[in-house]
Amino acid sequence: MRLRTISQLAIVLAFCACGYTGKLSAAEQTLLRVTPSTVTLHSPESRQQLLVETTGPNRFQRDATRDAVFTTSDPHIASVTDDGRVFPQAEGATTITIQVDDHEVKIPVIVNGLLQPRPVSFRHEVLPILTKASCNSGGCHGKAEGQNGFKLSIFGFDPEADHAALVKESRGRRVSLAAPESSLLLLKAMASTPHGGGAKIETNGIWNRRLVRWVAEGAELDDIDGPRVTSIEVSPSQIVMRPNSQQQIQVTAIDSTGHRQGVDGPILPVPAGATEVLYPCYIPEWLETDRTTRMVVLGVGWQKDPLGNIREVTKQADARITMILEGALLQVAHELNELTVNTGETFEVPFAVSRSAKLPVPVKLQMITPVELRPFIRLEPESIDLSPNETQGKLRVITSKHPALVGRWPLTIKATALQDGRWLVVAQTELSVQFNNAAASAANG
Q1: Nearest residue to 232 via CA among 209, 249, 213, 208
Q2: Helices H, strands E: what count in the chain?
Q3: From its phi and psi, is residue 219 left (phi > 0), alpha (psi between -120 and 50) or beta?
Q4: Which residue among 1, 276, 307, 361 is buried most deeply as judged by most CB within 10 Å?
Q5: Residue 272 in contact with residue 5, Cβ under 8 Å?
Q6: Looking at residue 24, what is its pLDDT?
Q7: Which residues are CB-contacts of 444 (< 8 A; sequence separation ≥ 6)?
Q8: What per-residue confidence (pLDDT) applies to 98?
């Protein structure tokens, strides 16, 4: 792929693998965009909504999810519905083709974890089903006296008591480890046997399959510190709609293991006349590589046209990459799990960095604060440079008494270095700080 530049072009790699050499064509225009650009399904109940957008000559983006035609090259691996939802069928790899008018995009799909999936969490997967189905609401089994001899804690606030009620009470008749599909819990919820509350879950739906798997796995009560959803992402984050139009929403859950976290590289300016670029990137220590060695490399370029409008070009590559796991090149840590600060005070954050023997170089360390807090926080110094022999230091944070500086906020400590003088290495950790503001409390009081 050739690169033609008029003035300067900036490129960024959205998800990368080491040492990718890319060439971009400024003549290419992204008319059809599908997110995510790759799909990984790693449990029997996994599913992924595809979001399809088209961009016209006027740069207006339109949701085309309902207008697209979805096909899969191997429906035995993954299936896709007419509205763009992808479901796993068997472990393996396949490709989904998305077509809108004369435009076509192909995205890779990886399915794994079906033969040995992560066990279903009672706390974080079963109880939310009972809550969404209103089983533990105040008008059903969650009221003080329960319902028909079966009582759950209101909205699942007591997982231990709820587990005992489901698995141990009434001689354990509500779950059947020998025949999970015949468990009274499921038969009642589907109204297959008389149930005063009627049907609460679909017979062949995801909730039903997850409950069946939980019972088949032994109907266990998982540890309180197990993986759980910590945040969600909604795309698009903002919508401009025309009358009588529609918009597909894509919601992605991110759990405490951080699997959903992506990798971004730096923005590189490409001088006029250049036709190739070697993009530096790194594989962080938290990135799991045992699920699949297939990674999607997406090169994105931006350039202004003569009218000043930003034009975007993209190029995707899909390849198998072999990685050797030998420990992190760079790590940064602090000893403060949580910190409480009165506004107007100055506090220090001690940190320590560790380097691999392959990285005997200086390290730059800085603190990244949320945009909303930057007018009220000052860092002295703004960054610290550690020599190759230095491993410890402190960052000083000076706060104001502004009423907006209140509540719990995350501060990120980021360490960067250059391996062999050109390969960027990044490590970071997060510090949770509770800001107590007397002025804000007095105003609210």
Answers
A1: 249
A2: 5, 27
A3: left
A4: 361
A5: yes
A6: 34
A7: none
A8: 93
Among residues 267, 259, 301, 252, the alpha carbon closest in space to that of 284 is found at 259
Q: What is the pLDDT of residues 182-225, one digit of tens each?
A: 888 888 888 887 777 778 888 878 888 889 999 998 999 888 87
Distance CA 120, CA 1 (A): 45
Is residue 30 within 8 A of residue 323, CB to CB? The reply is no
Mean pLDDT is lowest, of 147-156, 399-408, 435-444, for: 435-444
> Which token pair is 172?
């354990």
CA-wise closest residue to 99 among 73, 57, 67, 63:
67
Q: Give CA 410 to chain center in angstroms.
A: 17
Q: Which of 107-116, 293-302, 358-367 has the lowest mean pLDDT?
A: 293-302
* E strand or H helix that includes residue 351: strand 346-355
Distance between CA 67 and CA 99 in Å, rounded?
A: 9
Given pLDDT bands bounded at 50, 70 and 90, which one contains residue 402? confident
Average pLDDT over residues 135-151: 80
Structural domains of the chain, ranges and CATH numbers in brackets? 9-114+232-320 (2.60.40.1080), 122-216 (no CATH), 330-444 (2.60.40.10)
Q: What is the DSSP string of 8-49?
A: -EEEEESS--TT-EE---TT----EEEESSSEEE-STT--EE
Q: Which of 411, 239, 269 is nearest to 337 (CA)?
A: 411
Measure the CA–CA gap between 187 and 176, rounded to whole angstroms. 11
Q: ∠327-333-334 over CA atoms, to 5°? A: 165
Structure tokens at 233: 């992402």
CA–CA distances in Å: residue 279 to residues 44, 273, 363: 37, 17, 21
